[in-house]
Amino acid sequence: MTDRTTTLTIGGMTCAACVGRVERKLGRLDGVAASVNLATGRATVQHPDAVSVDDLITTVEAAGFTAQPPEPEAPRPPDGEHRPTTADADTPGARHRLLVTALLAVPVLVLSMVPGWQFRHWQWLCFVLAAPVAVWGAAPFHARALRGLRHGAATMDTLVSLGVAASFGWSAWALFLGGAGAPGMTMPFSLLPAAGDGSAHLYLEAAVGVPLFVLAGRHMEARARRGTGAALRALAELAAKDVAVRVAGEERRIPVEQLRAGDRFLVRPGERIATDGTVVEGGSALDLALITGESRPVEVGPGSTVVGGAVNSGGLLEVRADAVGADTQLARITRLVEDAQTGKTRIQRLADAVAAVFVPAVLTVSVSVLGFWLGAGAEPQAAVTAAVAVLVVACPCALGLATPTALLAATGRGAQLGILVRGPQALERLRRIDTVVLDKTGTLTTGRMTVTAVTARTGGLGPDTALRLAAGVEQGSEHPLARAVTARARDTGQPLPDVREFTALPGHGVRGTTDGHRVEVARPGDPAGLPAPLPDAVRDAETAGHTAVQVTVDGTPEAVLAVGDALRPDSYRAVDHLRRLGLRPVLATGDRAATARAVAGHLAITELHADVTPEDKAALVTTLQQQGARVAVVGDGVNDAAALALADLGIAMGSGTDAAIGAADVTLVREDLQAVADAVRLARRTLGTIRANLVWAFGYNLVTVPLAAVGLLNPMLAAAAMSASSLLVVGNSLRLRAWQPGGGPARPGRGGTGRRTTTAHRETA
Prior knowledge:
Elements: E1 3-11, H1 16-27, E2 33-37, E3 42-48, H2 53-62, E4 66-68, H3 92-113, H4 122-137, H5 139-150, H6 156-176, H7 204-228, H8 230-238, E5 242-247, E6 250-255, E7 264-267, E8 277-281, E9 284-287, H9 289-292, E10 298-300, E11 305-306, E12 311-312, E13 317-321, H10 329-342, H11 346-375, H12 380-393, H13 397-416, E14 419-421, H14 424-432, E15 435-438, H15 440-444, E16 445-456, H16 463-474, H17 480-491, E17 499-505, E18 509-514, E19 517-522, H18 535-543, E20 547-553, E21 556-567, H19 571-580, E22 584-588, H20 593-603, E23 608-609, H21 614-626, E24 631-635, H22 641-646, E25 649-653, H23 658-663, E26 666-668, H24 675-709, H25 715-734
Parallel strand pairs: 15-22, 15-24, 22-23, 24-25, 25-26
Antiparallel strand pairs: 1-3, 1-4, 2-3, 5-6, 5-7, 7-13, 8-11, 8-13, 9-10, 9-12, 14-26, 16-21, 17-18, 18-19, 19-20, 20-21
Helix pairs in contact: 1-11, 3-4, 3-7, 4-6, 4-7, 5-6, 6-7, 6-12, 7-25, 8-10, 10-13, 11-12, 11-13, 12-24, 12-25, 13-24, 13-25, 14-24, 16-17, 24-25
């Protein structure tokens, strides 16, 4: 029996008590574990094959909520990524209900609060206006409260419904039987419940104020929480809707869902690339800012890989589709962000456990308050007022929103910055790490061989000519060194001469005739009949961990090329930022010791491990953990997968292999190692925001419920305070959407510009 994971969209949830009820009901099924997110209105359910999706939906509906099955084949609308948790909180019908409620409630509030405007029979006008609000305006709360009652559940809607019913019912009794309907009766307004003056007081302002404030609050919550999902909607909008394909020499446009791997499609300037693929014809610059966070355009040509969602900024491209649908990078990014936003932190599970018993506890307190005041000889209206205030002021909504809204905003912001966090547990571990093990090739370095220096003989042909002749000969070779030399020459804009009489010297180099010269490109000291090399240039290259290649023209050594894997431009600054965050950098590479020392020296890393195998890297992680360190591993290759999986936190470069990305908890999509430090800062800021939200959510109830119980809160003000508490939590989380990576400049004199380089010829880590 295997476990499956199913995502359900849950309707009708309004507070953390609803979340707890759905999770408990699903958890009672054999082998089922559920995590429900209030902010997204989704449940992630792990269940055995014996439990069908229909069984899950039936269970949710039996709990008094609605559930929709997943639709994996149907494209999601851009605005459907994050539905409001209140089923109708941000729909045209809800806005109409809020508008009508406000038009009816405002006159009641004004007349009740301004005694000078209370004309003869004003109370009867207020009653006529309040009745539709108490019945129709509050209908969603009454309906959900009754549905919960049928299923033996109490939620936030139960508290609101009881508060409105009690306030309106008391006021109706006061008007018809308690003497408050007498002509010319006036009622002074007080922020606190007032003692009686012989006739029963009206609480019509509470009967209309509670539904008005709660409806308005939930409407604003829905809009605000919708803002936290802007990143996912932006990702959805990146997907092209249709694509121009070339079939049998003819061009036609088809929906992107019909595109298949191997199909060829056209991308014109200004269009988005429909899916991941390889350029077959044409050349252009691609804008990847919304995919990877990379602000610089990327030049592509025949043979270049391209990513779906990128914008073609230049010429016409013909692309062969390599991956479609769920296999594309954009789809993987979206899934990672969704997974991160639907999970829960440990502290949120504690809050959910509290919220599960919160509403029954509030009902108990309210009844106890009513009985206490009546037993103490207080007037019935004062006792009812205190009991109603307790019902209205209690707010488990803030508890339920404290963590998920922060996660929505933070993971969305992280995606915009090219940082993909697999889940909230990874976010917690990211905050606590204290040691970072860094791979070299492809992580600290670009992973591509490049010519880092050209040293020419004094009085000779000069560096440009020597490089051009060397590249002319190297055109005949497929060796990584050869590709590095020809690429460097092409970057200078020089046309490369043709080569004749080309000969490869296996393990040593190449020779040939080009532009009328006999040219040899080989390592110094190799038995290729070469003259003595340029000793200083060779020594400098080897000291830096580079591979020295000598260019000999017509028997004379003209230049030495230093070739290797260059450091990423941001490597020094990134490592420096990690140290500033209190993290301990450790270099672990499969390269030889000389190269490792060169890299460590450039980056001021004092702890390094060279010549390590994948098993050695995993053992290193275990050793560090046994010493008490909380270890993160940053890598990009298959040989890093074991260490990534074993570490407390695995961080994969987005340009790395699928094995590394699959084993990692965090993926850095953008080609910028400083994203590691940014991810740590974002995690710390997010969890700080969550703690602040929960402190407010718990503290609010600890303060306001006792105040209401002792009669120091008017029910109308209690309703306003309850709505404000949820808005404050959501607003605090929304601040993460504007978060910007920080970090001071690198230390001067140590490669602060990030331009130093180091290499290793044909060595991989």
